[in-house]
Amino acid sequence: MTKLDKLKQAEHLYVYENQPLDVIGAKLDLSRRTLFYWKKEYEWDKKRFEKGREQELFNRELLNFAQKIMDKISNDIDNNQQTPQAEMYSLMNILKNLPQVKQQITEPKQKQKPKTLSPEHFKQIEKELFGIEN
Predict the structure, then answer these.
(1) Cα–Cα distance for residue pair 51/29, rounded to 1 Å
(2) CA 56 – CA 68 distance, rounded (Å)
(3) What is the mean pLDDT of the segment spanning 97-126?
(4) Per-residue three-class SS string for the chain
């Protein structure tokens, strides 16, 4: 592999796959000094930022498009009109990707609630469903 090939592969790993320079150096047998020089000389950080910004804009557009399709389908249902299959198919394909998109554009990341029931939950369930009070 030539030095030019390594440069292109290192840039791809850094910019598009968000891999750290240490990992890239180990994979391609390159020194840290070489990688830091290339990173500065070829503006890899700027390219990485631009790539991230483009992805964020695309994700937002995808969410907006999905919302428009859902609104149209909702209007069709409200007006007792048949929804074209193409619209339903498009929406289903977009929905498959929404969890990943939503995670990427949510700022800041929210803490998820634990998925286990606490003793207080059990007491509330017993009280509301069975009328048992402790």
Answers:
(1) 26
(2) 19
(3) 65
(4) CCHHHHHHHHHHHHHCCCCCHHHHHHHHCCCHHHHHHHHHHCCHHHHHHHHHHHHHHHHHHHHHHHHHHHHHHHHHHHCCCCCCHHHHHHHHHHHHHHHHHHHHHCCCCCCCCCCCCCHHHHHHHHHHHHCCCC
Amino acid at 53: R
Reduce the DSSP state of residue 128 to 3 states and report it. helix
Measured between alpha carbons, how far is 67 from 98 in angstroms, rounded to an integer? Answer: 11
Smallest CA-to-CA distance from 55 within 80, 108, 18 is with 18
pTM over 0.70: no
pLDDT score of 130 more than 60: yes
